[in-house]
Amino acid sequence: MQGGFVAIILRVVFCGLWLLLSLPAATAAPAAGEPVRIAIDAEFSWPGSTSAQAIEQGVRIAIDEINGSGGVLAGRPLELITRDNGTVPARSIRNLEELAQVPDLVAVFCGRHSPVVIEAIDRIHELKLILLDPWAAADIITDHRHSPSYTFRLSLRDSHAMPALLDHGASREIRAFGVMALNTTWGRSNLTAAERHLQKNTGSRLVGVRWFNWQDQSLLDKYLDLKRLGAQAILLVANDREASLLMREMTTLPASERLPLLSHWGVSGGQMGQMAGSLVNEIDFVMVQTYSFVGDQRPRTRQVLAAASRLFGVTDPRAIASPVGLAHAYDLTHILARAIDAAGTTNRTAVRNALEQVRNHDGLIRRYARPFEAGRHDALTAADVILTRYEADGAIVPLPPRRKR
Questions:
Q1: Is the four-CA dihedral 249, 250, 255, 256 of positive or negative sign?
Q2: How far is the CA of 403 from the CAs of 59, 287, 399, in angstroms?
Q3: Is residue 118 within 8 Å of residue 74, measured between CB atoms?
Q4: Which residue has the higher pLDDT, 9 or 297?
Q5: What is the pLDDT of residue 9?
Q6: Which of 104, 255, 356, 377 is most buried, judging by how many CB atoms fall within 10 Å of its CB?
Q7: Mean pLDDT throughout 1-9?
Q8: Strand ranges, E, within 167-230
Q9: Residue whose C-alpha is closest to residue 107's, from 330, 333, 343
Q10: Tell me: the pLDDT tens digits for 97-146?
Q11: Coil, helix or strand for 93?
């Protein structure tokens, strides 16, 4: 009888082990402890904005993955807080001051408007608040006097954007460029970047600069001024409203009078595809980006697209608005999570230090051997810049490589 009882027990144990071994590989339990908080302070209420919304989507997709795999700090979930600054620097600074007081808040993501971020840099360092930049491109956001620096960027820099556009123009035998730029610190940052690049490339030159403002009702005179000065192409530093306005005005001219527009990516932070519509087929328009979902079939990309479909109902990669905002924010959130775990705490100084030590991170955009280190708080390089154009459905599509002659 005793032997039979033992046999039954052994059979039960064996069956239990067989069931365990037959189950799919276990994943970490979902995070359920006290939350670790991150925030976004961006231009959510800016008319037509898609940039802040894309940044939020990228952060939320990454948080969904991180929390589903156990969170950070041995089981604590990441929690997102959002604040709207309406592109008003004073409002952004007030938001940052309030967020700095939130318990266990480790970092704040900014939005796309460089002037807003630039105005807050001093206060960010007074607060010792980590600022993660997934979009704003002005060089000064990471090139400033504060040490140690609390600003970290995974995005384009103006000093990468302008050389890429100028070199693209030169590859098309364009040697004389006019600049049309917003009269802001972002516009001036790009002019400086263009001038510095041209000092090393004497075969090309700037024929003139024309500044404009957000609420200008016409840009055609400025465009025609530069054309009269001999511009063969326009370097455009604008947002979607001004770019689409210029394109509409240019289409009133004969096709032979329409110069190529070589554009920074501010236009991709709004509803350029809808505003420009069929004009994209009538204007030679080229724009810098760092990433496109279109044509990317890697497993990580499919994973992110599946999450975008599940969380936000976005089923077509061509329909993702402001794709760089989503991609940059996604990679930055995962890098931040690794730094939090390495620091072993939510102390912002410790996390700041840990961000400089993260190594070998496989991201959506690429593999980062070392995203950040002391003296270099830009994760992307000039080699990450790609050239794109809008298609009629609003999709941002990489240009095919130009054939060398």
A1: positive
A2: 38, 19, 12
A3: no
A4: 297
A5: 37
A6: 377
A7: 41
A8: 176-182, 205-212
A9: 333
A10: 999 999 999 999 999 999 999 999 999 999 999 999 999 999 999 999 99
A11: helix
